[in-house]
Design a protein that fits this description.
This protein is of the alpha/beta class. The chain is built from 14 helices and 12 strands.
Length: about 375
């Protein structure tokens, strides 16, 4: 079976974990490897501060807290996203207001945002689907004119950019994921990126259970104490050590993933030219980090038939999100603004093919050959 995903493994992971445990005697949060990962993110994105978290979900929770959103406030977001994008605001008592997506990128349709703004709107939450940037110039202009906070769910967008600027660094905060399905992994983990240096101290307190412990360990104060609300958002140093092993060879990992992405695209372009499938679209101003490779079939029935066919060929392919606004919680906590022209329809056509660092050229040849076989038979 060719799996849909295999967690990335660069080689030095076990040695770095051993070093953290045996040499540094440090396995809780904010040790040497946590600091190295944070610095790598800061150096490679230009953000003022990056803080590792236990997940992208927790990074989003921190971002929601820091935005000041509260009971009855509204946040505009796409419905085609993972539940964490909405959950973090629902936990604050806010109302998700879903708007339609663009069919080309599967990102939020920037032209639908202003219609959804009310006097209760506080935040625009954008999701960079498949690591492809939203139309950030337009979105940031809307936010500025309406005095709204922008939070970027950049879970899939590490090492992606929009007009040369790293995704996750446009809004007040950006959130990365280092889950095992991502380009770089620590098993479970994430990071919050902060654009404004004035937010750093509040974020550190929030992340450290509401205490000023970070300042204590930097020697800025002689003891630490409870300062505000907070929780424990620090990942283990062992997770950070695993992640840092991959960040040291990040360019090599990306080179391999992009080569496999391009191979998929080249091999399946004939089917796309014949109108049998659609391939991913990368706007000219965006870079592609090869987080995923998907195709779009004619409709839901064809997609399900293709999934079953590929499984019979020992290939695991998967569909992606069920739109949040049609879920029980989405109906309970949020509402859809405007018309669902593309969100549901496009979500039912999208099929993700295997994509991971260890995927080989021969495996992609086999997968694309099976996809072609499926369409020849139809």
């Amino acid at each position: 079976m060719i799996p849909f995903n295999m967690p990335p493994y660069a080689g030095p992971e076990m040695e770095f974990i051993r070093h953290a445990a045996e040499d540094n005697h440090k396995i809780s949060g904010d040790g040497e490897y946590t600091k190295k990962c944070s610095k790598w993110i800061e150096d490679n994105t230009g953000t003022a501060r990056a803080l590792l978290t236990t997940s992208c979900t927790h990074a989003l929770e921190m971002a929601a807290f820091l935005s000041g959103i509260g009971e009855g406030d509204e946040v505009i977001m796409p419905s085609y996203t993972f539940v964490s994008t909405a959950d973090c605001f629902v936990l604050r008592g806010a109302v998700p207001v879903f708007v339609d997506i663009r069919p080309d990128t599967m990102n939020i349709d920037e032209t639908k945002i202003e219609h959804a703004i009310t006097d209760r709107t506080k935040v625009i939450a954008v999701v960079h689907y498949a690591g492809v940037g939203c139309e950030m110039d337009t979105i940031m202009d809307i936010a500025k004119r309406h005095n709204l906070v922008v939070i970027e769910d950049a879970a899939q967008a590490v090492m992606s950019s929009y007009k040369g600027k790293a995704l996750g660094t446009f809004g007040e905060s950006g959130c990365y994921s280092f889950h095992e399905t991502k380009n770089f992994s620590m098993g479970e983990g994430g990071a919050i990126l902060l654009k404004d240096p004035s937010m750093i101290e509040e974020a550190e307190i929030l992340r450290e259970k509401g205490t000023n412990r970070s300042k204590f360990f930097r020697g800025q104060i002689d003891k630490y104490t409870w300062m505000n609300y907070g929780s424990s958002y620090l990942p283990s140093e062992l997770n950070a050590a695993y992640l840092y092993a991959q960040l040291t060879v990040a360019d090599d990992i990306q080179k391999t993933r992009i080569a496999r992405w391009n191979q998929y695209h080249d091999e399946l372009s004939g089917l796309a030219d014949d109108g049998r499938i659609e391939l991913p679209y990368i706007p000219r101003e965006c870079t592609n980090n090869a987080h995923m490779f998907y195709i779009k079939t004619k409709d839901l029935d064809e997609r399900q038939d293709l999934i079953a066919f590929l499984k019979s060929k020992d290939i695991l392919s998967v569909f992606h999100y069920i739109p949040l606004h049609i879920s029980p919680a989405g109906k309970k906590f949020g509402r859809f603004d405007g018309v669902d022209e593309y969100t549901t329809k496009e979500s039912e056509r999208l099929l993700r093919l295997p994509m991971f660092h260890q995927l080989t050229e021969d495996q992609v040849d086999y997968i694309t050959g099976c996809v072609k076989e499926f369409y020849r038979a139809r």
